[in-house]
Amino acid sequence: AELPEWWRQAVVYQVYPRSFADADGDGIGDLRGIRSRVPYLKELGVDAIWMSPFYPSDLADGGYDVADYRDVDPRLGTLDDADALIAALHEAGIKVVIDIVPNHTSDRHAWFQEALAAGRGSAARARYIFRDGKGENGEEPPADWTSAFGGPAWERVEDGQWYLHNFAVEQPDLDWSNPEVRADFVRTLRFWSDRGVDGFRIDVAHMLTKDLPEELPTQAELDAMPRDGQHPMIDRDDVHEVYAEWRRVFNSYDPPRTAVAEAWVDPSRVPLYASAESLGQAFNFDLLEADFDAGQFRRIVADNLALAAASGSSTTWVLSNHDVVRHATRYGLPHPERDASGRPSRKHGNEWLLSGGTEPALDAEAGLRRARAASMFVLGLPGSAYVYQGEELGLQEVADIPEAERQDPTFFRSPGEDKGRDGCRVPIPWTASGSSFGFGSGGSHLPQPEWFGGMSVEAQEDDPASTLNLYRRALELRHELQTVEELTWLETGRDDVLAFSRPNGWTVVTNFGDEPADLPAGEVLLASAELEGDRLPGATTVWLRTAG
Ligand code: TEU
């Protein structure tokens, strides 16, 4: 049965449209491809899908450079295809969440083209953040800021002015103090809500509003400023004026449309985004940076349940997404070094990627085993769980993509430092052999390795112990057992073993260590690896039905 407020404890499956399924054989996944796989999603048992951008785009940042927010990229389909996909998903009982990218447009967006043509001081330029440069002829950028992808954050245009781009050069930042900008996004939210979309994932939700003084601070000064809501560019209090307006739009629909913030902010400020007056829910990315470690997992769960309660929202759990090294791979590598604040000093797995997947050695078997255990731990928690396409197959990151075939701007903007995010975006293997392992008849826009066939849906379909069937079983059980958002920690007598119970006698035990652990009495509903008699081996999660 559907719980009220479906999003609170939903399993949301992230589809990266270009890499899911390719119906027209051009090597790029498309909306008709996704539609052809709705039966797969239904059998998997997900409550919703979140689709990364499928709008017209030059693909400078994999579609996060949007040229038109109210259309479909012709390579991915048409608006009719979008309608048909939404209808097919709804028919299968699956909700639809789409990605909104409001911090920046593509430089191919009609607005930016107009801004270039209209020149300095024009109303068209006032939709973006243009400034004159410094130095004699304004030849130096207005400030020394660096973009998130590396390299300078200011780019010069033909007439000599500069524009701000916090991400790729092809992603000019919008000026959210401009009423036209605000009105246009409301139009976009209504456009898709009217088409039946159930919710929105808001890209870099913490950076929209900016208050840049005449005399710009340096990057070092920016970095030193407190993030207390008054920072000139990050996590400003006034961004919630935008979301309060959006919330009124969402609530004008029945049922109200949902939203989840991608906000990289201090935990103490997460409730601002997650409150019912703002977006309603916010991602918690702590698990993306955690080791497979009981202490870290326990602290993250406790902290985030408390944060969600503080805002009346529910939390989210994310082990993998399209921006990070897949967790089956992260858990097969040595733990990353951590700085004083406990954060990994570099993107986890990046060293390994830079070496082309050779150094340090990857223990893929251990990585997958831990990934299965971690996923089953997370799927037992209250809150909504995000599953990134391919993790239900236990896919590893692809490290050895030749440079000539790489697409991600982080790779090109940070040469030698960041290998980019292509390795988790390689198209899904549906069949054990054949053209692009069943992705499509026309090859694959990123090369798939040979070993993909053995991890394909076809190869796992009939194996009861496969990762795919483990996820299917987990999602089926979750629907059966899940009620209110309650969790009670159980004493295990060991630091490396976590156990909690949920209402309905649903008990989850994870052994993060190496030594087998004792299990509470109960009926085994699911195990992420074979049990050793009545003992729980290392790197294994079990779900039990216990009395009471
Ligand atoms: O990501 C925002 C973000 O700040 C990071 O996760 C970013 O991907 C990382 O620093 C790069 O190494 C969102 C999207 O998830 C990402 O795919 C987009 O590239 C980005 O916004 C820009 O739209």
TrEMBL record:
A Pfam match: Alpha-amylase
Region annotation Disordered: where it falls in the sequence: 332-356
Matches recorded under InterPro entries: GH (IPR017853), GH13_cat_dom (IPR006047), O16G_dom_2 (IPR045857)
Family the entry assigns: Belongs to the glycosyl hydrolase 13 family.
Name of this chain's protein: Glycoside hydrolase family 13 protein
Gene3D superfamilies linked: Glycosidases, Oligo-1,6-glucosidase, Domain 2
Record domain Glycosyl hydrolase family 13 catalytic: where: 14-425
Keyword match Protein biosynthesis: no
CDD domains: AmyAc_OligoGlu_TS
UniProt keyword Transmembrane, yes or no: no
